[in-house]
Q: What sequence folds into this?
């Protein structure tokens, strides 16, 4: 009986570490294509979308996470707060607010190649399912 209990415990620990590793991999900083949006609807976090705030949508980073986003073409950077889920277009890693897009010079093009990194992980848990990103 003890052997079965120990084996069950070991399997649970291994599964927990495996799940945690997958979640961290999906939320890892990287590079990819970003777009901007300014819809006035509610975000996944419950806030109303405000195009004049420095916010962004990411598929799996926790709400409240602050992320440094850098436009690879011109080197301009901005810090945004994750408050929504998305983008839902294949190959994109972030949707930023119009204000953030203006700060990094991507309003006229609509999209840009960016790199991003977490600067403050916030205190909230990941909401929604993580999706593997194209970091190329």
A:
């Amino acid at each position: 009986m003890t052997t079965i209990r120990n084996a069950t415990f070991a399997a649970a620990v291994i599964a927990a570490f495996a799940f945690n590793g997958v979640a961290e991999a999906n939320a890892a900083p990287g590079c990819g294509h970003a777009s901007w949006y300014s819809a006035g609807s509610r975000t996944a976090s419950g806030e109303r979308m405000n195009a004049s705030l420095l916010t962004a949508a990411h598929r799996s980073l926790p709400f409240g996470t602050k992320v440094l986003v850098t436009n690879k073409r011109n080197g301009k950077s901005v810090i945004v707060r994750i408050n929504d889920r998305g983008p839902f277009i294949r190959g994109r890693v972030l949707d930023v607010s119009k204000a953030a897009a203006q700060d990094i010079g991507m309003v006229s093009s609509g999209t840009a190649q960016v790199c991003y990194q977490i600067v403050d992980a916030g205190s909230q848990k990941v909401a929604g399912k993580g999706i593997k990103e194209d970091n190329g």
Observations:
- Helices lie at 2-26, 98-103.
- The chain has a mean pLDDT of 78.
- The beta strands are 30-37, 55-57, 66-71, 77-84, 92-97, 111-120.
- The chain has two helices and six strands.
